Amino acid sequence: MAINFKLAIAVVCLAALLGCSTSNLQVAEVGSYHVGGRAVTLSGLPEKELLFTPGAPPLKLNPNGDFEVEALYTRYTLLANPKSRYPLLLWHGGGLSGVTWETKPDGAPGWENYFLRAGYSVYVSDAVERGRASWARYPEIFKSEPFFRPKKEAWELFRIGDTDSYNTAPAQRTALPGTQFPVAAFDQFAKQSIPRWGTNDPATQAAYDAYVDKVCPCVIVVHSQGGNFAFNSASKYPDKVRALVAVETSGSPNPDTFDFARVKGVPMLWVWGDNLGKFPFWGRIAAQQEKFRGNLIAAGGIGDRIVLPDVGIKGNTHMLMMDRNSDQVAGLIDQWLAKQGLKK
């Protein structure tokens, strides 16, 4: 599909100047729930005596019994008169939660707000092990200990600064030239980082599949590590996923074995920020995603791509939904979804 992205950019900018993003929202319902997961019974674990509240007597804690684990949490805002035909599901990346899509670290409105005002009902989820989806005991249920992302890794892996440009002192960090990330808010962003486990992908996929089965038909917008789960859910429910937008996705099923015929009716869009070529890790990921996208197109599907610097938008990081120009990027996605016939 031929898309004039530079014209789309001009339209998005004009809409912002006309104040489209400040219109009042007419909300029909706000709610939340957990979906998926399984029941587990633990036994044989020792009791402990703990003081739960200062000033109260200690209580015996018995860790044995029945538990509900490995569910996904979602919060939704349904518009009274949506302009979109289907709700938008926002899926986060690794070591993060649904906060990715909410208010940005610098206090500016995030993509949840943008897409609500663009006419989409929006669901924001926390995957298994993240945020309000909660943890489970390990090694009894989660089979490994969690691991945590240092700020240095986030600064460099997310292409905010170059290799070895991070410093504990904020004033001594060196960001990439022209970065769109609000670097003064980086430490605020780091507060969003939460532990993750390397052994929970099957449980996470099962919960996402249950989520799609319950909520959709829908459109999925997925970031980074979440991409693999989204592609698999689209393959399982191709009649329910009406489009998939892969934002800087770092994972996908094996393009040599994936059944692209199942998803050729699901339009897909890949969105990439700047400076991919400076980092070999991201160069390899982008090449793998190009193979995946090419195979989708060869199977007869729609596999479009926006590389932001190629359309004149420069300086975006891996966290482009938090960058200063994130509304401009969201506007391009909105334009693409409209071209797929997904808006009324």
Give your account of this protein's structure:
- The protein has 344 residues and is an alpha/beta fold.
- It has a single domain (5-38, 70-339), classed as Rossmann fold (3-Layer(aba) Sandwich), CATH 3.40.50.
- 26% of the residues lie in helices and 20% in strands.
- The chain has an 8-stranded mixed β-sheet, sandwiched between helices.
- Helix 1 (5-17) packs across helix 8.
- It is globular and about 65 Å long.
- Residues 5-22 have low confidence and may be disordered.
Q: Which architecture name does CATH use? A: 3-Layer(aba) Sandwich
Strand count, sense and barrel status of the largest sheet are: 8 strands, mixed
Computed structural class: alpha/beta
Number of strands: 10
Q: For this structure, what is the CATH class?
A: Alpha Beta
CATH superfamily assignment?
Alpha/Beta hydrolase fold, catalytic domain
**Strand adjacency order, main sheet:** 1-4-6-5-7-8-9-10
Shape: globular
Helix/strand order = HEEEEEHEHHHEHEEHEH
- Please give the radius of gyration in angstroms: 21 Å
CATH fold field value? Rossmann fold
Unreliably modeled segments: 5-22
